[in-house]
Inverse folding.
């Protein structure tokens, strides 16, 4: 487990789209390092042949019947958006004219 | 009218005997909120209209006229569901969580949405983006978290019951520190649909009540298969309230050595040992067992929870709902980054980033996959224990409620504080915290019972037995 750097923090923040100010980088580098420190103890345990557990209830492949059901109305689905026009959520243009 | 300590059972009897009316009871809760909540800060929003509206339902319904509060990560149509987060500060629920709808169908007056650590990322309620919920027993101390507002609202007599949620200790912890009963059934027993997600393989709706029987009553209304939640157990609602039995004669109770060592506050340890002795006098057999040291659970939980958090919080783009930054962005991805960067608190940021790291290429095997494999060891550890014993008893929390400010500068406070809850949380086992008196400083102590998967009756029965030691 290599030491975390400020560059690592920048990369991670970009991966999950959280903008950080430059003066926050060191604080998060330190916090993440502290958070991961206790995880070293897992190396003490024998894991040969041990399968991973994703969830404890063991359910798999729950499939719904293909029956149409009422969902949210367009009005309800968009009611919390910042800006709505003709039933659409208004966002910043991301398809450029050149394409 | 002071309703501190009032149970659902007692309230039902009182209403039947016309000791007071349902309207009086709701008003008493609202009065308590008006009198104390400006200091206590248990509530994010009070839903007076919704509470009184419930009186139009049938009087025969099980929760008619008996007010409860709900943690503000449960969607309730027409209310703000903020998860005590700046990001969702103005989010209005367009739908209702399944467990809440079932309670409302049961006649429940919902009195308000309670404060929590933002996105449930915490064990003190100090990391709410809005305000800290104080401990009703001592205003200089925290109420616990993340269901701190829920626990405090019941302890302070602002409602008779509350719905909280637990990922690892977030119901049991505040229950222990606020002196109320905190119950969480087997993972999958209560639907997660409509609950703001934290760790999807861990999250469990639970209850904060003034009695063990009340927990059973609420379970009977809330639980059961939900087609909206693919991880919900394929069984109907669990009706246990009339089956409870506090007789412990012949019961084998496990005392895990690693939950009873010098990491535990002296008088908490003493009280736990005393409870075990009293249970022994009533015919239980106390058996020392060895469970994997909680330090392994802290490591597993830190990785798995934070990984799942990073995934679950990725839906909060600020485009479809949630906080939108007014900063000028050059692209939609930059817009999203500003929205999240400006509205996520420190905990949301540091947990999401840790989780993204542990899931990322090159680190996934060393962290996330390894943690999932150790999780298998933990699950098997409990299975082996339950071949020898019927139930496990230990202190719920290593200490009683700490002073305000305890989370400052500690990025692992939550995971360390919930040390004794994390193993059973990772295994998804039913568990309950029962108040068992107070410590030297007059602060509540909680004892927890853990039983094997699907054995909610075992948990509630032993919880009832422990409760009866104090009545």
């Amino acid at each position: 487990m290599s030491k975390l750097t400020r560059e690592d923090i920048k990369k991670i923040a970009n991966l999950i789209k959280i903008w950080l100010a430059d003066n926050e980088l060191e604080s998060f580098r330190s916090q993440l390092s502290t958070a991961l420190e206790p995880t070293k103890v897992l190396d003490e345990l024998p894991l040969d042949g041990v399968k991973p557990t994703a969830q404890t209830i063991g359910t798999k492949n729950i499939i719904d019947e293909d029956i149409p059901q009422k969902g949210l109305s367009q009005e309800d689905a968009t009611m919390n958006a910042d800006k709505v026009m003709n039933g659409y959520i208004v966002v910043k243009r991301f398809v450029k004219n050149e394409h | 009218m002071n309703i501190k300590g009032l149970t659902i059972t007692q309230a039902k009897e009182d209403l039947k005997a016309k000791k007071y009316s349902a309207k009086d009871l709701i008003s008493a809760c609202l009065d308590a909120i008006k009198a104390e909540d400006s200091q206590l800060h248990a509530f994010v929003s009070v839903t007076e209209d919704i509470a009184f509206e419930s009186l139009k339902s049938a009087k025969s319904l099980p929760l008619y006229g008996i007010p409860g509060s709900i943690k503000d990560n449960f969607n309730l149509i027409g209310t703000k569901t903020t998860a005590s987060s700046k990001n969702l500060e103005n989010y209005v629920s367009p739908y209702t969580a399944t467990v809440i709808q079932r309670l409302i169908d049961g006649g429940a007056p919902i009195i308000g949405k309670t404060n929590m650590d933002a996105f449930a990322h915490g064990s003190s309620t100090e990391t709410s983006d809005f305000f800290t919920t104080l401990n009703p027993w001592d205003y200089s101390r925290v109420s616990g978290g993340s269901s701190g507002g829920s626990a405090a609202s019941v302890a302070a007599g602002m409602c008779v019951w509350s719905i909280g949620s637990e990922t690892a200790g977030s119901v049991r912890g505040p229950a222990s520190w606020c002196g109320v009963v905190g119950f969480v059934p087997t993972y999958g027993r209560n639907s997660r649909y409509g609950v703001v997600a934290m760790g999807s393989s861990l999250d469990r709706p639970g209850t904060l009540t003034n009695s063990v029987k009340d927990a059973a009553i609420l379970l009977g209304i809330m639980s059961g298969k939900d087609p909206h939640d693919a991880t919900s157990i394929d069984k109907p609602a669990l009706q246990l309230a009339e089956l409870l039995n506090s007789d412990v004669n012949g019961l084998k109770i496990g005392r895990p050595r690693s939950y009873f060592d010098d990491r535990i506050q002296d008088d908490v340890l003493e009280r736990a040992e005393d409870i075990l002795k009293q249970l022994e006098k009533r015919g239980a057999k106390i058996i020392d067992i060895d469970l994997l040291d909680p330090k392994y659970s802290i490591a597993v939980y830190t990785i798995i929870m934070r990984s799942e958090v990073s995934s679950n919080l990725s839906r909060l783009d600020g485009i479809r709902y949630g906080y939108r930054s007014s900063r000028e962005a050059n692209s939609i991805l930059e817009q999203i980054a500003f929205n999240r960067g400006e509205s996520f608190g420190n905990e949301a940021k540091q947990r999401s980033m840790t989780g993204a790291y542990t899931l990322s290429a090159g680190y996934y095997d060393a962290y996330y996959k390894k943690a999932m494999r150790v999780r298998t060891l933990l699950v098997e550890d409990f299975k082996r224990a339950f071949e020898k014993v019927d139930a496990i008893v230990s202190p719920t929390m290593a200490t009683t409620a700490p002073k305000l400010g305890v989370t400052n500068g500690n990025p692992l406070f939550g995971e360390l504080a919930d040390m004794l809850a994390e193993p059973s949380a990772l295994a998804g086992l039913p568990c309950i915290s029962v108040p068992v008196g107070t410590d030297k400083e007059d602060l509540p102590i909680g004892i927890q019972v853990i039983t094997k998967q699907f054995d909610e009756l075992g948990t509630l029965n032993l919880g009832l037995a422990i409760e009866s030691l104090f009545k």
Summary: Chain B touches chain A through 75 residues (CB under 8 Å). The radius of gyration of chain B is 21 Å.
